[in-house]
Amino acid sequence: MARVLVVDDEPGIRTAVARGLTAEGMEVVAVGDGHSGLQAALTGSFDAVVLDIILPGLSGYRVLEQLRAAGVDTPVLLLSAKDGEFDQADGLDLGADGYLVKPFAFVVLVAQLRAMLRRRDAALGRTGQRVRLGPLLVDPVARSVSWHGDVVELSPREFALLHALASRPDTAVAKDELLRLVWGDEQAASRNVVEVYVGYVRRKLDGVGAGHVLKTVRGYGYIVESP
């Protein structure tokens, strides 16, 4: 089930989009202003964001700009009442993955959103093989992780990181290689971002008693050891 954040200050559009996406089998969180949208999106816990450009408090452009500056690359579909080529170019240059002009047909919004999610799935390896290492199960199709049957809740980026490591058990993976596998480009983020996300994953694994399987190879990268 895809988790989608909808940010739009028009109650009618916000409600209609949220209801429609829920009917399409998606989990939806909807907010009505830029600051709330930014705080929600910064958690990295969404698979996609539907983001209006004209918002109270903080425009959609600024929300998108701050997301990308923070290293959050959740796919973003911009909604705008402006159909000018320069407006679309500005949004795409800031890091948007799609641009839809109001008024729009809901079926077109869903089609764009599903296309974004498919690209996201491919980039994060969700079409890869399920990995079982003793009591650790990493399933890229369901995008789920469990330890002795206890579910480990991970964000899409955290899941991609763990899956990349678990797919190569007992093998040290360099930080640069993780940047390529998980972020898509060695230049897309810094090595420090990898360290931060490894910390996130390790803490969540610790919560179910599995933190020991993810180890640091000092000066090189990380390894998931077979239990």
TrEMBL record:
SMART domains, per the entry: REC (SM00448), Trans_reg_C (SM00862)
InterPro entries hit by this protein: CheY-like_superfamily, OmpR/PhoB-type_DNA-bd, Sig_transdc_resp-reg_receiver, WalR-like, WH-like_DNA-bd_sf
One Gene Ontology biological process: regulation of DNA-templated transcription
GO molecular function: phosphorelay response regulator activity; transcription cis-regulatory region binding
Domain OmpR/PhoB-type as annotated: residue spans: 128-226
Positions bearing 4-aspartylphosphate: 52
Record feature DNA-binding region, as residue ranges: 128-226
A GO cellular component entry from the record: protein-DNA complex
PROSITE patterns: OMPR_PHOB (PS51755), RESPONSE_REGULATORY (PS50110)
Residues covered by the Response regulatory domain: 3-117
Keywords on record: DNA-binding, Phosphoprotein
Signal sequence region: none
Protein name in UniProt: DNA-binding response OmpR family regulator
